[in-house]
Amino acid sequence: MVNVRIFVTYKQSVFDPQGETITEAVHALGHKEVKNVKVGKFFDVEIDQTVKKVEESVKEISEQLLVNFNLETYRYEVMEEA
Amino acid sequence: MVNVRIFVTYKQSVFDPQGETITEAVHALGHKEVKNVKVGKFFDVEIDQTVKKVEESVKEISEQLLVNFNLETYRYEVMEEA
Amino acid sequence: MSTEMTPQEIKEQKPYLDWGLTQKEYEYISEKLLGRLPNYTETGLFSVMWSEHCSYKKSKPALRLFPNKNERVLQGPGEGAGIVDIGDNQAVVFKAESHNHPSAVEPYEGAATGVGGILRDIFSMGARPIASLDSLHFGEINQARTKYLINEVVAGIGGYGNCMGIPTVAGETTFDECYTGNPLVNAMSVGLMDQKDMQKGRAVGVGNAVMYVGAKTGRDGIHGATFASADFADDRETQRSAVQVGDPFMEKLLMEACLELTSAHAEWLVGIQDMGAAGIVSSSCEMASKAKSGMELTLDYVPQRESNMSAYEIMLSESQERMLLCVRKGHEEDVKAIFKDYDLEAVVIGRVTEGHRYLLKHQGKIVTDIPVSSLTDDVLEEPSEQKIPQHIIDAENSSNWKPQIDNPTEVLNRILQQATIASKESFTQTYDSQVRTSTVVGPGSDAGVIRVRGTKKALAMTTDGNGRFVYLNPEIGGKIAVIEACANIISSGGLPLAMTDCLNYGDPNDPEVYWELYQSVKGMTAACNVFNTPVISGNVSLYNENNGKAIFPTPMVGMVGLIKNVAYTIPSFVQAEGDIIYLIGETKADYSGSELQKMLTGNISGSLNDVDLIEISNNMQKLLSAMQQGYVASCHDLSEGGLAVALAETTFKTDLGLSVKMALNSAELFSETPGRFVVTVSPDKKESFEKVMEGNIKEIGQVTKTPQLKMKLSDNEIEVAVEEMQQLWEEAIPCLMKSKD
Amino acid sequence: MKFAVIVFPGSNCDIDLYEALHTVCHADVQYVSHKEKTLAGFDAVMIPGGFSYGDYLRCGAIARFANIMPAIIEFANAGKPVFGTCNGFQILTEAGLLPGALKQNNSLKFVCKTVALEVNNKTMFTAKYQDHEIINLPIAHADGSYYADEEVLNELEENNQIAFRYAKENPNGSLHNIAGITNERGNVLGMMPHPERAVEALLGNEDGLRLFKSILLGSQVTGEMR
Ligand SMILES: Nc1ncnc2c1ncn2[C@@H]1O[C@H](COP(=O)(O)OP(=O)(O)O)[C@@H](O)[C@H]1O
Ligand SMILES: [Mg+2]
């Protein structure tokens, strides 16, 4: 078993109203030192690598399901072997 | 400037319906090698550390705003100094 | 910023062809309109403003057929939305808009921004949106991609409307293979206003300020307006994305601020228009053009989200949630203060000028200097060729399909499970249909009904379209679309006031498609004239194709009706045991394009029988009069699935049943002759009702206490438990959506 | 008795609460902007549904920092009635005036429909209902799944703080079928269902009316609210 974390973020040019609103809220709280909040999501998955190569699995589930390429891109990290 | 990524996840004891649904969808796609999908969110923030210590900022904005301790916990990583 | 092509390079390399401008148009612009070569920015402006979406250059000859005036119309087509007088110095404002192409690419945001756009059209007129509707057409629910599209589109419509707090109260959802790769996503919004608050998108008065309010401008949706004619590149790998993302929270603030301005400080305001397709360029030059003014804008003042945006990008961006105002000179600060109160920025980006020049400056340079009218009025209208499709000629020359039904109970149970007929509750439950607490009737009836607070009035509203009929005969199909919308309004007890539309077709350069467009508009026009429902606003969406094949020509009709006394809002469900059931309208052998034909043959084919608009209109008028006198307990119009489905539907969610006996046979039970109604009347109103209706009605049975549907036909009998049918009808779509393929 | 309906940026059921109180109950009611700092002169605070700040972080998470919040907290701590529906409930939990939190519905979808609720009439907000009465109220939310840890749930049960429970089906996955709770003192109520949408026969449901009548009655009986 391998633990993988897949990070999904908005592409740079995509308007992120969520991030914008949270940044404003952080500033309203007085944290002017915080510049630019961006929101992303991540998926932690366990993969049984005896069945399929890890990269292959990650690539397939990300591209088929987890990521919306109109707006998002992804990256992943192999966390540890369980 | 320091870039920090703050990870927010449900506490272990809290049911994560999204993770469950995605796990099912992954299996429906035929990826039986993928075991257990958990979903989390992260916030990327830039912090001007001349104003305030980075940990202090992160701790404050997380605990005041970004995290609801009834449900969630958080962790953070300093990504790089910009 | 990449260096832009020079005018000469543009002439040689012809990038405008990709932006949707034809060679002929380019030459006309250079030689006749400007007398010089347009620069890069100007070429961009022409290409979006001369697109079908902004100029209607292809569809205009057809659109001219539509009637757009009557004694109630206060504002016809040409502004953000049309306006109709509803008495008491109030008016209803409505319009529909298609977001088919954006939704095919990015279904959630495409649908969401479709709702956002139509809401801006309404509040830019000075009206508060009070309800939304949608009209959705998808492929058959048998592919993962279609299920994804359905889920995301429905979520996008709900996501935006729910956050804005505008109830989504009615709509339609149909399924046919032709929409597989190209779903139709049409949204309609209805607003209410005091007539004194009426606004126009005009920029008059030299020296008055042009102000930009709302979200910042990014590079989203550049060439969205012309996107219909160009393919979308696969931008998986890139960091760039042209997809517009909706921000309903921003729009909510923008709406409240704009309504405060138009209702409380109208004297500061000269004109207001939303930035829809083609963003700043279309809103600003249309405002100038309508006022026959000139305009000068300094693009550096435009609030920008991304760095290094070029003049071309700033002008063509389709970032959402933005409005353009023309503000009386000297009141700029007052207006800013109102927006500031909502944490919004309002910025002066230019002025109204003398003459008729459209002058844009950016980074110290003049980037555009052209006559305003060259963008708006001088568009080359192209006569399109027309040709009757072969399938229609063939159908005229062969006989129509006739069903043979041995087991009507089984057919009824099956037809109730067809996606187009089955309950849409799993979708409509994700829409907030009650917010603003004025929803008298929400999704699941013939029309949505919204009361007008402080009066006895209510507004009934519906969207209807049936591509199958229009495909088989565009002119008759066009008539039927209007009939069906009127029938839904009448069923609720409303007087049809006027309509809006979304005309969804394939590539108009295909003479067969253009013929369909023209003929169907002709048919709709004939019906509008008879029903006195002028077309006060609308929208055209062309180039809708699935695998190179045009969709069914699908004009969507959005209609609003006035219920004089909300107490006489008529439910579509049966009300009490013993009530008498009537059928209004003749039933003929209308099986071409029916749900029955599709279910039994897998296809639709044949020719349509023409409809008698005058007779249908007479029936409707009498029925409405009976309703207004309190004689009608319930009413439901007949559409897909015919009488059988309509009768079944009137019992759902009640604990009652029906017992009917009629001279029709099993096949006729499913015929889809338009303009028919089932009505229930309490026995003590029987005489009065029949007197008002003056014949042309048939008594067919009674409402029963036992929750069963019993029908005696000329050739067979049906007896089913209501609960059983209701379950099939309710579970069909959730079941299809879950099934693995 | 004077009611304040709080308006946050993005609130959209404010008009519904206002009309229910003003037009239907003929009560004295006024909108109060999130920018205000005081609630002087008011006897009850009503926090409406909607999408404060777009609900772009967790629902209610940003609203809890609005200018008006300290005044609301003070008002609650003084034992005066504070009512929140839908987003209002979420804001009250985020602000710590009510325990627990509201998670995304188990269905992962927004749901708008009428649901059956069992009422506990031992609160000042429900006095006009019968105990264990089953009523129907509309819900309209995407994040209404009530969560609290075991200990909190037990306290809620023991102290009679659960004012409304989903009776027939649980539409969102709430623990203990919780649809609405009060604070320990009983003067703060948060609930996901919308009683303000059910106060007129014309709209098909009057089951919510008695909640507002209960609040009005409370002030008459105790007379202490002024
Ligand atoms: N996408 C939708 N949005 C809102 N309401 C819908 C939608 N699709 C269907 N409905 C509702 O479902 C009911 C049935 O729709 P439909 O069969 O088109 O009715 P009709 O035949 O009377 O026009 C109507 O109340 C309609 O408003
Ligand atoms: Mg109908």
The percent range for helix content of chain C is 25-40%
- The low-confidence runs of chain A, each spanning 5 or more residues with pLDDT under 50, are none
Average pLDDT across residues of chain C? Answer: 94
The CATH architecture designation of the domain at 402-430 and 570-736 in chain C is Alpha-Beta Complex
Distance between the termini of chain C: 47 Å
- How many E strands of chain C? 28
Into which percentage range does the β-strand content of chain A fall? 35-45%
Q: Which stretches of chain C are poorly predicted, pLDDT < 50 over at least 5 residues?
A: 225-235
| Rg over alpha carbons of chain A | 16 Å
Strand residue content of chain C: 15-25%
Shape of chain C: globular
Structure overview:
Chain A has 82 residues and is α+β, with helices and mostly antiparallel strands. Chain A has 2 helices and 3 strands; from the N terminus they run βαβαβ. The longest helix of chain A has 13 residues. Chain A is elongated and about 50 Å long. The model of chain A has no long low-confidence stretch (mean pLDDT 90). Among the domains of chain C are: 181 residues, Phosphoribosyl-aminoimidazole Synthetase, Chain A, domain 2, CATH 3.90.650; 196 residues, Alpha-Beta Complex (Phosphoribosyl-aminoimidazole Synthetase, Chain A, domain 2). In chain C, the strands form 5 sheets. Chain C has a 7-stranded mixed β-sheet. A 7-stranded mixed β-sheet of chain C has the order 23-25-22-26-24-27-28, sandwiched between helices. Chain C has a 6-stranded mixed β-sheet with strand order 1-2-3-6-4-5. Chain D contains 5 helices and 11 strands. Chain D has a 9-stranded mixed β-sheet, with helices on both faces. In chain D, strands 5-8 form a two-stranded antiparallel ribbon. Classes of the chains: A alpha+beta (82), C alpha+beta (741), D alpha/beta (226). Chains A and B meet through helix 1, strand 2 and helix 2 of A and helix 1, strand 2 and helix 2 of B. Strand 2 of chain A pairs antiparallel with strand 2 of chain B. Magnesium ion binds next to helix 19 of chain C.
